């Protein structure tokens, strides 16, 4: 049973957080600069891309987050500040310094994020303008604008909030994210910012973030490409005033479940907004020997370009599914595998005991004609399961990425 309530809101729903989103001119027309600010210094945790090619803001934040504290996040879209050498790192430091000056806080308490085109240095005059405008525009209603300002090829904003109680005290978690292409995380998502007014220890916050990321952002794929800028940051400022949440307690479990919902929701929104996507795809692996086996298999299927194109073409080509399971690294017996396709139009078994089973192609086509498709892989071997989410591969994905820079 869920011990939280989903509410309308985002990163400014928790107490003590302000945000803004402005146009600085980095992009041609849309908002491109966001600022998130906690009125008091917060406990903080973050995860970053495991790509060996890391953007300058990632390298900077990896150092800053070591003390587990932060008070602000400054982010620009339209330019990734990746593969920009020492100049890029210095520019990221300047972003933090300029934001700290405007907010009258320590520069070490400002985390920096960028997203957009790789290999181009930041237009620092525009960055300075963005910081000034964003600082002036900070408000309790600014979460929606911040969610818009971090978007690149996204077609819609991604935001969510939940509330729950800890020993009678109301606590809120809010989040925003961006991501549409270059999505195959192995840490977090493209950019995801989470805020909470929970009073929680640094250790508990860090553990909750790592565990929920494993079951949310790490389980999505749009195109199999891992970004140079992937970052997720959570700030917990304690403004709710609840008794401190510590590892191994019932209150930690409540917080964990609420955070897991927030991160799963944002992850699925990213998958639904995949570049050129026409269908949302959920892959569920059940009855595996271990959770790791289930995770490996689910991620392999959702990441398969051949499975994605089959879903786009509404073709019940189950051979591509079992092939993706086969190279996943999961431990299973082919002779025990059953595969089902499911949507609002029904459920059909397309593979039994690892091989052919008669099924209606017309029924399968009808099931795959829906916008949301579920692939169920049953290992018939154990008790563990995993969920992964993604989207189909359409012609528009090639169009979008064939001219991304222009």
UniProtKB/TrEMBL annotation:
Reaction equation(s) it catalyzes: N(2)-acetyl-L-ornithine + L-glutamate = N-acetyl-L-glutamate + L-ornithine; L-glutamate + acetyl-CoA = N-acetyl-L-glutamate + CoA + H(+)
InterPro entries (alphabetical): Arg_biosynth_ArgJ, ArgJ-like_dom_sf, ArgJ_beta_C
Residues at the catalytic site: 189
Pfam families: ArgJ
Gene Ontology biological process terms in this record: L-arginine biosynthetic process; ornithine biosynthetic process
Main enzyme class: transferase
Recorded GO MF terms: L-glutamate N-acetyltransferase activity; L-glutamate N-acetyltransferase activity, acting on acetyl-L-ornithine as donor
PANTHER family the record matches: ARGININE BIOSYNTHESIS BIFUNCTIONAL PROTEIN ARGJ, ARGININE BIOSYNTHESIS BIFUNCTIONAL PROTEIN ARGJ, MITOCHONDRIAL
Assembly: Heterotetramer of two alpha and two beta chains.
Protein name: Arginine biosynthesis bifunctional protein ArgJ
Natural source organism: Thermoanaerobacterium thermosaccharolyticum (Clostridium thermosaccharolyticum)
């Amino acid at each position: 049973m869920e011990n939280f309530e989903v509410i309308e809101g985002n990163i400014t729903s928790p107490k003590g957080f302000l945000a803004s989103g402005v146009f600085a001119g980095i992009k041609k027309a849309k908002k491109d600069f966001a600022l998130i600010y906690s009125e008091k210094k917060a406990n903080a945790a973050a995860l970053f891309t495991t790509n060996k090619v890391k953007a300058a803001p990632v390298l900077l934040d990896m150092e800053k987050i070591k003390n587990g504290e932060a008070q602000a996040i400054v982010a620009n879209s339209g330019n990734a500040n990746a593969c920009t050498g020492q100049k890029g790192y210095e520019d990221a430091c300047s972003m933090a310094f300029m934001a700290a000056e405007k907010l009258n806080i320590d520069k070490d308490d400002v985390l920096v994020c960028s997203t957009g085109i790789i290999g181009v240095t930041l237009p620092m005059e525009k960055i300075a303008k963005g910081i000034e405008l964003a600082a002036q525009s900070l408000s309790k209603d600014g979460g929606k604008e911040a969610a818009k300002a971090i978007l690149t090829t996204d077609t819609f904003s991604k935001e969510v909030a939940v509330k729950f109680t800890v020993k009678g005290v109301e606590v809120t978690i809010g989040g925003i994210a961006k991501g549409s292409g270059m999505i195959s995380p192995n840490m977090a998502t493209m950019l995801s910012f989470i805020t909470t007014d929970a009073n929680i220890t640094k250790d508990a916050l860090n553990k909750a973030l790592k565990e929920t990321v494993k079951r949310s952002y790490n389980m999505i794929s749009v195109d199999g490409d891992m970004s140079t800028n992937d970052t997720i940051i959570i700030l917990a400022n304690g403004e709710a005033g609840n008794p401190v949440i510590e590892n191994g307690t019932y209150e930690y479990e409540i917080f964990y479940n609420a955070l897991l919902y927030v991160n799963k929701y944002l992850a699925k929104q990213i998958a639904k907004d995949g570049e050129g996507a026409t269908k949302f795809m959920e892959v569920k692996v059940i009855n595996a020997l271990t959770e790791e086996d289930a995770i490996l298999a689910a991620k392999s299927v959702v990441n398969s370009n051949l499975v994605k194109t089959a879903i786009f073409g509404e073709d019940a080509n189950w051979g591509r599914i079992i092939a993706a399971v086969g190279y996943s690294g999961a431990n299973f017996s082919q002779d025990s595998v059953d595969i089902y396709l499911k949507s609002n139009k029904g459920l059909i078994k397309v593979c039994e005991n690892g091989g052919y089973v008669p099924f209606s192609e017309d029924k399968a086509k009808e099931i795959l004609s829906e916008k949301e498709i579920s692939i169920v892989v049953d290992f018939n071997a154990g008790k563990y399961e995993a969920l992964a989410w993604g989207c189909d591969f359409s012609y528009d994905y090639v169009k979008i990425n064939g001219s991304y820079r222009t």
